[in-house]
Amino acid sequence: MTDLTNQVAIVTGASRGIGRAVALLLALQGAKVVAVSRSQDELAELTLKTKGVSVIADVADDDDARYVVEETLRHFGRVDILVCNAGVGSFNLLEQVNAAEWDRIFNTNVKGTFLLCKAVVPHFKAQQSGHIVGIASDVAKRTFVHGSAYGASKFAQDALLATLRKEVRRHGIKVSTIYPGLVDTYFNDTTPGSAEAEKTHLRPGDVAQAVRYVLEAPPHVVIDELMLHPLTQDY
Fold first, then answer.
1. Each residue of 105-125: pLDDT tens digit?
2. Domains of the chain and CATH, by start
3. Nearest CA to 129 among 186, 187, 169?
4. Which of 117, 172, 218, 221 is the most exposed place for a label (fewest CB within 10 A)?
């Protein structure tokens, strides 16, 4: 198994939900965590727990994406792991989705993944190692009513990561994609912890454990894709 001790991990969307759970679990395994979000107050509290570094950044901004990697290198001298978790969504009939909302979803979910990967891949190539983990969604593999914008963004993110996987594998770089089903988080303006969600949703910690699983796979093993959904979901 791959030892995560002292591995330097960038985690985007780290202020709450899945990203927070991933950051905490990786820190518990001994990784040096760089937590990235636009929420300064929540990141500050998280960094106290992970004993890592926080970077306030918008992943959809080219300069910010490069800054995240530069700050990581300044603090730790290397990058070993990138977890692309930052994501947003809204759900409506296609004719009720406005252009600004479409752009907001694609900017975070697709452009954000693209920019962080673009910023980190040259460093991974230079060291001939590195692991990118994309947190996609089970809707990257299926469609549903009211999901045109969010689903299209996750299909696009999935295609981006699958293509990158083929481009970088010969450089010793792994790219894994995780497809969670419903997760009990603040996503889509919901408040986690309801009795109903306890029965029907994954927990953020479940997704964090999946991230740990793919990262700890032996060096010669590549876990390209991992589907994760609660027992109550019937596909």
1. 999 999 999 999 999 999 999
2. 8-228 (3.40.50.720)
3. 169
4. 218
**Is the CB of residue 40 less than 8 Å from the CB of residue 18?**
no
Q: How confident is the model at residue 191 (pLDDT cuts 50, 70, 90)?
A: low
DSSP string, the chain: ----TT-EEEEESTTSHHHHHHHHHHHHTT-EEEEEES-HHHHHHHHHHHTSEEEE--TTSHHHHHHHHHHHHHHHS---EEEE-------B-GGG--HHHHHHHHIIIIIHHHHHHHHHHHHHHHHT-EEEEEE--GGGS---TTBHHHHHHHHHHHHHHHHHHHHHGGGTEEEEEEEE--B-SSGGG--S--HHHHHHSB-HHHHHHHHHHHHTS-TT----EEEE--TT---
| Rounded Cα–Cα distance for residues 119 and 70 (Å) | 9
Of the candidates 67, 150, 186, 213, the residue annotated as catalytic is 150
Token readout for 18 is 């899945």
Q: Is 186 a catalytic residue?
A: no
- Rg (alpha carbons) of the chain, rounded to whole number: 17
Helix axes 204-215, 17-28, angle to 10 degrees: 50
